[in-house]
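User: Once you have settled down, look closely at the record that follows, taking as long as you need, and be ready to discuss the fold:
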Amino acid sequence: MIPQFPEFKKIELSDRKEMEKFTNQFPHYSDFNFSSIWSWDIHNKTMISQLNENLVVVFNDYVSGENFLSFIGDRKVIETTSKLILYSENNFHKKFLKLIPEEIFLHFKNSSFHIKVDRDSFDYVYLVEHLVGMEHWTKHPAGRGIRKFIKKHPSYVVKELSIKDTPHKEYEKMFEKWSKSKEIENHFELNEYKAFKRLIESGDENIKFISIYIDGILAGFSVYEILPDHYALAHFSKADIKDYPGIFDLLNWEEAKFFHKLGIKYLNWEQDLGIPGLRYSKTKYKPAFFLRKLHIEPLK
């Protein structure tokens, strides 16, 4: 059971249903997705609480690893924000909250808080129906990439797998190959690899793997989660871009076709963290809209 603030508990797999009672009332923000929180809690430091019927999370910064507070909910927002900022200042020496869903913005009108839109944390959301037609984007690099890939590798194979059917060794080799291309010596020490392993070990049946094989060898894969309200959320994606240029374009296209068959309307590809390369790659696929997040701090 999630304790009442100011008590916190470390997150456990058994907390999923209770946490989703809070989060499913809002759009599917990647930061508050249970599988995402669970898989990236590689140091067992993420903690949860509830305050005024809002879910409170002690996150670890995706880049620095430092603790910070956030919450999702619309009950007694001003009071909740004030108490959490005071707690954050006293315990983490941070006088702010991050990753606050934009839907809560209306509650901050005429308040004593300074609200900043955090562009680096926006979730990119795409229309599946739009992505399904990527091979026909005649003047777009993604469309060209797909057509070139099909011409060079016409016999590629797409496999759609559940979490229990995943060939773990093949995915491990793909992480290793990707790491070497980035001049990373030991992929086992990568935070992303550790998070990937935790996600697989969760055993969640809503996690789906879409993989591309060429001549029987894994060339790329993506991991998604099927969510309510016709949504899917991206978790991980790795591919051999050195040997197979354009494979990410093809992979994203095949994913869209797979989800279109399932009746999924929207794909959330998470945030770009302000990294220029990620921002370019996410923007080029033409997101339909963003799930915007806020940075909140007291007025000085």
Observations:
- The chain has a mean pLDDT of 92.
- The longest strand covers residues 217-227.
- The longest helix spans residues 77-92.
